[in-house]
Amino acid sequence: HRKNALSVESIPRQTIMKALASAGRNHNPHNLSLASSLNGMINNQGQADNRPGTATSQKLSAALTDLAGRNGSPNTPRFAALQSPCFYHQRFDDAVNIDKVLEEIKEDEYMSHSRLMQTATGVREVSKQLQRRPIKRAVRNVMIVTKARDNQLVNYTKDLAVWLMSTPRYGSDLGVNVYVDAKLRNSKRFGAAGLIEEQPRFQHLLKYWSPDLCWSQPEKFDLVLTLGGDGTVLFTSWLFQRIVPPILSFSLGSLGFLTNFEYEKFKEHLNKIMGEEGMRVNLRMRFTCTVYRDGKGEEMEEGEQFEVLNELVIDRGPSSYISNLELYGDNELLTIVQADGCIFSTPTGSTAYSLSAGGSLVHPDIPAILLTPICPHTLSFRPMVLSDTMLLRVSIPRNSRATAYCSFDGKGRVELRQGDHVTIAASQYPFPTVVRSGAEWFDSVSRTLRWNTRGAMQKGWDGEEQNKEEEVEWDIDTDSACYGSEDSSISASPLRRQMSMLGM
Fold first, then answer.
1. Judging by beta carbons within 10 Å of its beta carbon (0-12, 13-18, 19+), is residue 282 exposed, middle or buried?
2. pLDDT tens for residues 354-392?
3. What is the pTM of this model?
4. At a CB cut-off of 8 Å and minimum separation 6, what does 499 contact?
């Protein structure tokens, strides 16, 4: 695997295509050089790896060159990996020039430790401001995600859609555009035809979304509302495999780590968010997981790719043999995993499968990768928290007795055969969730897991006279280390009393 492994700087083709699709609809002139920079990165990657390029990579390089020429992009290379396509990040493009900071560090031959600390502190401060500052923008297109087979949730969806379309917004006597699941188009319980018949103006406001629309035009939606539990939120992450609009989740399921808004108060919550207060967003980290197939001595073939919000799970599947996995970090062998499997979790997923397997709770603001083994063969193989800057790779040895299976947020189960591997890296497409307060994560953990909750609290003593009368009065103060009559004497403690009796 070391010989055929891709370099740390290599970028999967699907990641490049996602970035191109996002840049194609971006009107920011600073990001027009994305295609040319990706083209340069591919060429540099081929020179660094010293491997002949395949026909597919040559075609991709030619397509990028043509796209760069048609867009009139300059040939100046930029740090494309740091040019996040997330529209929420782009609000601060003019305030923070990451390229300039990196260029100054690169040209400084003797970079001091204090300067590095100042740069790192500045980047962290920018990250904090991203979540502290509310977004005040006109929300004109709202997408509602729910379970189309749940009759009660369909009724809730109908009530919410009618209220959004009928409530005047932004100086108009009409509401906002509402996108509901295309499966509800002919639903009798939702009754789209009846709604339009009662209110003909809803005909231009009620629209329908599909997975293809979420993939091709994710920037069409200004806000996404989920009705359900954490599973509905994970399904929303599955729909948006590129840019993700802000997600506001109403708690209507069995678990609520990610759903912190009550549906009964949806009018109050939405009036605040769509009004002058705006919304504060927490950018939750996701993984980009890419499967590579063994090329039988040639270059590895790129397979499936998924954006993961909770975790990537690799297990032994139906095999009776223990899993034998090679774990690499930045192309360096870290360890050989011998267990039923292992879990690579985001901080958001630390309350899910990883927690059940013995992993720790991690706040979603901490950028980290959680490695949690499943029933390891050695007891010393304990859960670890790794840096989010690492590129992890899990390989199936060619001499392994059995294959392995990996699942992405519980979906898309894929078999990894001998010689295959999967890479895990921090995604450039975060998952923005609307937050109510800064302590809502602790509230959700306390509410769902009953974190640090006792059955009964220890009784306190307030020193009031009524409590003294109820208690039995003792002649001897057994809680004191000295006698009451000896408080002021030299023999106040038992040790001094013994010493005085002995004449010492």
1. buried
2. 999 999 999 988 889 999 999 999 989 999 999 988 999
3. 0.74
4. 491
- Strand segments, DSSP code E, in 72-217 are 141-145, 177-181, 206-209
d(CA 385, CA 361): 11
**Count of CA atoms in the C-beta half-sphere (13 A) of 175:** 20
| Dist. CA 125–CA 92, nearest whole Å | 12
Instruction: Just list the catalytic residues.
Output: 230
Other C-beta atoms within 10 Å of 327: how many?
A: 18
38 in Cβ contact with 64 (< 8 Å): yes
Helices (H), 290-439: 353-356
Note the pLDDT tens digit of each residue in 6-64. 655 577 888 877 777 776 555 443 433 333 333 344 344 444 444 444 444 444 445 44
Dist CA 467 CA 474 (whole Å):
14
Half-sphere exposure (CA, 13 Å, Cβ side) for 127? 14
Contacts by residues 412-417 (CB-CB < 8 Å, ≥ 24 positions apart): 412/304, 412/306, 414/291, 414/303, 414/304, 415/317, 416/291, 416/314, 417/293, 417/294
